[in-house]
Amino acid sequence: MAAIFLFGIVFLRLGYIQVIWGRDLQAKAAEQWQRDLPVHAYRGDIVDTNGALLATTKTAYSVYARPKSVTDADRAADQLAGILGMDRQVIFDKVSKKGVSEVALKRQIDVETAEQIRSLNLDGIYLGSQGERSYVYGSLLSQVLGFVSGDGVGQTGIEAYYDKYLKGIDGELLTETDLVGSELDNGSMTYIPAIDGLTVTLTIDSVIQTIAENVLELAMYQQSPQAARCIVLDVTTGEILAMASKPGVDLNNLPRDDLEYLMKYSKNTLLTDVYEPGSTFKVLTAAACLEEFSKGNPKAFSASHIFGNSSGTRIIDGSKISCWTKHSNGKHSNQNLSDALNNSCNPIFTDIALSLGKDTMYDYLRKFGYGSVTGIDYAGEQAGILVPQSSVTNGDLARIGFGQTIAVTALQLSMATAAAVNGGYLMQPYLVKEISDPTTGNVVKRFGPTVVNRTVSEDTSRQIAAMLKRVVDEGGGKNAKIDGYQVGGKTGTAQKFVNGALAQGKYVSSFIGFFPASSPKYLTLMIVDEPQGQSYGSIVAAPYAALVFQEIINYKNIAPLE
Question: Catalytic pick from 62, 69, 279, 538?
Answer without folding.
Answer: 279
